[in-house]
Amino acid sequence: MWIQTEISMPPKARGFHLITDEIERQLPDMSAIAVGWAQIFIKHTSASLTLNENADPTVRGDLERHFNQYVPERAPYYQHDYEGDDDMPAHIKNCILGSSLMLPISKGRFNLGVWQGVYLCEHRNRAGGRQLVVTLNGEAM
Amino acid sequence: MWIQTEISMPPKARGFHLITDEIERQLPDMSAIAVGWAQIFIKHTSASLTLNENADPTVRGDLERHFNQYVPERAPYYQHDYEGDDDMPAHIKNCILGSSLMLPISKGRFNLGVWQGVYLCEHRNRAGGRQLVVTLNGEAM
Amino acid sequence: MWIQTEISMPPKARGFHLITDEIERQLPDMSAIAVGWAQIFIKHTSASLTLNENADPTVRGDLERHFNQYVPERAPYYQHDYEGDDDMPAHIKNCILGSSLMLPISKGRFNLGVWQGVYLCEHRNRAGGRQLVVTLNGEAM
Fold it and tell me: Are C59 and C67 in contact (CB under 8 A)?
């Protein structure tokens, strides 16, 4: 049983955003899968997907501040600078954080830990919407 | 052919631990899969899974020291600090290293390189056990 | 429908290399898959796979320079140093960047963003060839 769909995410501010509910709402067919995987894949090189704490928003703020510190703008060794100071750091953050998540499905739902949530990490200052490819595969209930 | 199981890992000291054998021993059904994938997924936001060198233990020590240097405790920009100095660094390390591994299966075994092993990376000083979801999918032999 | 093959990549210079076309050319059977996944897995602990910008080569140069800055050679805390100054940094970069990519397949092709390409990241100064395991799974057209 294969299901594939593209989801358009509306533009988000630079930073780390919790999107678990937004994704699950768009995957009604997942309820038919007893055991399987859901892949969320972002079709961009300056925004990322990761998993982390779903409760305290200061975790998301600290992540944004940490990556800004260790992947700085205007590093003296950047040659790719004509799209703005936030562009090359965005590419590097994307390589570190990753472009896709593979989530186990059990009994029709993501099988995540109690504290885990899906983050969309927007690395650009003024990005447009972002396209996701979501692919589900599994055994029907 | 889908197989899904949850594995409880006993508590481990802070650091990088080789767990390939511990995982394989708990997956006797993998021997029936000719071609497929095994996913190991950790249901936590302060411990990670990664692959690296399976021979020299100094590699694991150097990884722990490197991540402690570049993801420091008590960074001045952390706001999420009430669960201890090791908490926010643990979340950041988890985002960098990742929460899951997807391993190719060939002829009933993980198809890894000769030097590759599965690491559980424990980022907290005094963590409890950790829960893994292991999902296998493939073509029967 | 499962397809698995091993691909030998010829030796590459240290740095980030765009290999999307090289991979696609070796996967003629992908054209038969309507919906699915392709996994590219590298069987080594000192070279990585990641996705990023497929157009401007300065992005690849900046990535190499950034990772050399933040994963330095001869860090005072390295104990694993007998294979050369580029060895331990190579292991760390591999943990950060990752050993595998899971790409969605749609209508017989990788379903990537317009600007996304597959990178092989060679972290050693004088590496030999690299072995990839490529596994395809999906629904036939």
Answer: no
* Stretch (H or E) spanning B116: strand B116-122
Contact A104 B44 (CB under 8 A): no
Provide the whole-model pTM: 0.98
Query: Which has the closest alpha carbon to C46: C85, C5, C4, C6?
Result: C85
Q: What is the pLDDT of residues C44-58, one digit of tens each?
A: 999 999 999 999 999
* B74 contacts chain A (CB < 8 A): no
Domains and CATH numbers, chain B: 2-28+41-100+117-131 (2.60.120.460)
Find, in chain A, the residue whose alpha carbon is nearest to that of B3.
A35
Tell me the mean pLDDT in the region C12-36: 97
Nearest by CB to residue C113, choosing from A4, A44, A102, is A44
In chain C, at which residue ranges do the beta strands (DSSP E only) sit?
2-9, 15-18, 33-42, 47-53, 100-106, 109-110, 116-122, 130-140
Q: Is C69 on the interface with B (CB under 8 A)?
A: no
Closest Cα in chain C to A91? C52
Q: Which of B44, B95, B131 sits opposite A97 (nearest CB)?
A: B95
Interchain pair A102, C106: CB under 8 A: no
Cα–Cα distance between C116 and A122 in angstroms, integer? 16
Q: How confident is the model at residue C95 (pLDDT cuts 50, 70, 90)?
A: very high
Token pair of B56 as six digits: 């020299």
CB contact under 8 A, B96 and C94: no
CB count, 10 Å around CB of B73?
14
Q: What is the pLDDT of residues B32-41, one digit of tens each?
A: 999 999 999 9
